[in-house]
Amino acid sequence: MPLRDTLARVDEDLAAGRVPVARQRLRGLVSSFPDDLTLRRRLAEIYRLYGEPAEAGRWMYLEPDRDAAETSAFEARYGTPAQRMRALAWRGSESLAPTAFAREQLEAVRAACSDSMGRPVDWDAVPSGPKTDSGNNPFVDFLAGAGCLVAVVAFLAIWVNGRVALFD
């Protein structure tokens, strides 16, 4: 479906109160046209309707008139440069960005990611980032393992009891 037709459907969905459907259509459009800042802006407006400042900040990140609180929420949710690169969903070179501000933002995020990864990265092969510690307590891990062991032993005990009862 052409861009204009899909945008008309988004407007119809919003007018009919089908905000989730409009959001999904816009997400698809941003995926297909990542360098269209107008689509990103409209998607940010939808997330404002949901009360999602981090997602609104995500889609307004390349705009000079972005809200500082939304940008902070985005940066807090996507804490590493690699996570921000993936979240921005950009494809191709920064030179494809339609504004100088957007180019600068994309270059800064990519440079920060390259620094954190210790190697050059680009937008077409966004790294998954370093492994992070899950934060689990060793005692909690032990309890989980012990719980699984108890469940297996209980299952085997019931199975053996059933087999014995079957042949008695």
SSE layout and pairings?
Blueprint: H1 3-15, H2 19-32, H3 37-50, H4 53-60, H5 68-77, H6 81-88, H7 100-117, H8 138-167
Largest sheet: none
Strand content: under 5%
Broad structural category = mainly alpha
* Elements, N to C (H/E): HHHHHHHH
Task: List how many beta strands DSSP finds.
Answer: 0
> What CATH architecture label of the largest domain applies?
Alpha Horseshoe
Helix content: 55-70%
Radius of gyration, in Å, reads 24 Å
CATH topology group of the largest domain: Serine Threonine Protein Phosphatase 5, Tetratricopeptide repeat
- The mean pLDDT is 89
Number of domains: 2
Number of helices: 8
Question: Are there runs of 5+ residues with pLDDT below 50, and where?
Answer: none
What is the overall shape?
Answer: elongated
Q: What is the CATH C level class of the largest domain, in words? A: Mainly Alpha
Span of the ends, CA to CA: 70 Å
- Oligomeric composition of the shown chains: single chain
Structure description:
By secondary structure, the protein is an all-alpha fold. It has two domains: 3-125, Serine Threonine Protein Phosphatase 5, Tetratricopeptide repeat, CATH 1.25.40; 133-168. Helix content is 68%, strand content 0%. It contains eight helices and no strands. It has helices spanning 3-15, 19-32, 37-50, 53-60, 68-77, 81-88, 100-117, 138-167. Helix 3 (37-50) packs antiparallel against helix 4 (53-60) and helix 4 (53-60) crosses helix 5 (68-77). It is elongated. The mean pLDDT is 89.
